[in-house]
Sequence to fold (394 residues):
Amino acid sequence: MRDRSKRLSLLIAMSMVAASASAWAVESLQFPGAASAAKAAAAASPAADHKPGTHETVEAGAQSSAPASPSAKSPAKPPVAKAKDTIPAKKLFGALKSPAPMKARAIGAYSRGCLAGATALPIDGPAWQAMRLSRNRNWGHPKLIALLEKYAGEVKQKDSWPGLLVGDISQPRGGPMLTGHASHQLGLDADIWFTPMPSRRLSKAERENLAATSMLASDNLSVNPKVWGQGQVNIVRRAASYPQVERVLVHPAIKKALCEAAGTNRAWLAKVRPYWGHFYHFHVRIGCPADSPTCTKQAPIPGDDGCGKELDDWFKLLTAPPKPRPRPVEPVKPVKPKPPLTLADLPPECSAVVADDAGIEPTAPAPSKEPTAKAVKPAKAVSVPQNKKSADAK
Ligand SMILES: [Zn+2]
Fold:
């Protein structure tokens, strides 16, 4: 137990170092391993972030935080407990490069939890390639990883889809991330690109720089027939067909296209939920696995296909003129942004997941012997309104 506390102290120290990009080189002389943690934090910084991810900021906006425990103010508190209440959990989890060597378990809620015993999706498979390897987010609950491998095989065999480009799943221990996503914390969420997988193996550089293709037309209210087709319908439908998948998030315009393409077999549409963003990729979420008793189940989805009033309401939002800002009568107090989640805001089991053996020393993201490819210019982002919250992304 003392060892665990020491490790947590070390990790917290490393994370504090990682928080200061300008100071990391100096600080790393004082903390063994801190340089690697700082490098990891820098690699995941917003500057290193890229599309797709319009929805990710929305999901981040849905993140909520409990006020810091009053014990944080107590001078008698041991340093670990004090730090744990003040350090953003994303810095702790973002610095860890390997999974917690524990029994596989998703702990807490999709936007407030962590993951023990994660496995990695291999960066290459017979019918998939993992993207954005520098993020080290190809980790998930073994049940999700197994499903993704099966899913990739089936879209190739049964849907004539060339293969899946897999975006973010989770960090090695899940938890909040330094950039993007409020959810993806339990290893039960995966982003799948709408772009078909190229027939060749992509280089490491291409996996960083290749721009995903937006499926939206220039009106942002419909799909672009030049890039959207039956193939995309098939892969979303197949994802929704698995019993363990509870939700598939797509942009409302994509949901509309799916409603129109579905024909008489419509049961799968209920799981396909409209949400902001999600026009470069769709988001596949499985339910709490049986081995995870402290995983918080989501509210069940409405039973209908969601092609009626719900979709109409989304289109009203998408087409609503921007509200004029009311002129303030008195000076308005600036709204303080919500503080980020700390370890104290997560389930207590997550402290053990962060502190457990291994993972302090970062590992190389993924082996690749491919030559460096010319960077592809990212596609222009399509802006969509960002103010609707939904239980779907939580
Ligand atoms: Zn996602």
